[in-house]
Amino acid sequence: MITGKNYIGQELSASGKTTFTTFDPLTERANPATFYEATEAEIDEAVRLATEAFDKFGKLSGDRKAEFLQAIADEILALDDILIQTYCSETGLPQGRARGERGRTVGQLRAFAELVAESSWVEASIDRAQADRKPIPKPDLRKMLVPLGPVAVFGASNFPLAYSTAGGDTAAALAAGCPVVVKSHPMHAGTGELVASAIVRAAKKTGMPQGVFSNLNSSGIAVGTQLVQHPGIKAVGFTGSIGGGRALFDLASRRREPIPVFAEMGSVNPVVLLPNAVRDRGNEWAKTYASSITLGSGQFCTNPGLLLGLADQNLSTFAETLAEEILKIDPSCMLHPNIRKNYEGNRAKALSQEGLSVLARYDKEVGTNFAGQTVALVDGKRFLEHPVLHQEVFGPYSLIVQCADAEELEQIIAQLEGQLTGTVLAEGDEAKDYDKVISALRNRVGRLIFNGVPTGVEVCASMQHGGPYPASTDSRFTAVGIHSIKRWARPVSYQDWPDALLPEELKEANPLGIRRQTDGIFES
After folding, report:
1. How deeply is 316 buried, as exposed, middle or buried, from its count of CB atoms within 10 A (0-12, 13-18, 19+)?
2. Of 301, 325, 392, 410, which one is the catalytic site residue?
3. Taking the complete model, does pTM exceed 0.85, yes or no?
């Protein structure tokens, strides 16, 4: 049963008067549950409890944190059909997508449980003392990662499970030992509340300290603003628009004690179509990319919004085929009327630029919140002259750019903003002839893809989901995979401490049996 209340610590509260509901974009009806906007007092209480919980939670063993994370995964699965039904009623997405995203969410939690149970993630490093070193003796130094403190996590609009209440940011922060205060996304507050209830049950069952997790509802920006400005919050996780992420980044930077904001934001995910690939497999790639561009109505941060190639007849044929193939695909429902409105506005702005031509635009009658896919074409010179064409159009839209030569292609890539992904389509060994182009692409992206599509982000240790600004606020970190835990930790060195007083991870005997670097040599 959805109560519409805020979860603060391990209790329920709803002292506020401001309410809101969620919306089913498929049926165009408001959902029945009413949600209460968190008050300033509730925000303060959630952060106070998180701060108190940190003193205990941040010191828990890896095994205890793993037990908690596994329990969260179990409790989410136990929600069963009510979670799937609520997810679908708040997104317009099919049950298959809901179940797939639930599986990913549970998988992330279990992966972090395994990581912290093993404990080597703390990157323990030991340099033993050299008392007889001349002219200055060397002290004993031991370093490891420790949790930052309470973390604010903002739920994402396009992934109600995998990037929201118990998504990657929350899972990684809890794994690191950081209590979490979630600002639930208003578009799927019901889904968020159900997941929050699962986390609360898991916390109680595993004996976690009160305040290790809170979930706050909000229909606007006030709650998020207050949360980021609260002195008890030590870091922020966000997945969403450039405007939203930048606003949080600026708020955090202006605090008396600035804190890091790890925001994953906009990206057009450029795809470089090399000549032989277009010549030999143009039809195949056109069909593949028609599906990728329209997947989930284009509501993925890795949607391929920019296709770059060298102008010739083969590229023209590819463009024509892509236009034909994309119109064969039935449009799908977008997550919210506001997202569709923004899509139409940004698409209209792009299509109004001089020199751009529309190759395909789905114009048959569709549902109110459905988005018609669009493919447009422009030459490289015009693309460089109109920076608005470089911006993301969030939805089923992609722009093909015909470059005059490899030099112009390289110039265009170099002038792009930071991106999450960059893809190269090549045939045989032709990529070796475009080293400068590929080097330029590598400098603008977090993930380089060869002969594939950017949609789809594997959750594993080698995934890099981030990139130069504005793809993310810090390109050194990933928002997906077990290494995302490093966002919520900082290094601390212990100098000349007695062995008995050191953390288990740094003791001489290595009682946890973890992988460490000792005097420059890795041991396990």
Report:
1. middle
2. 301
3. yes
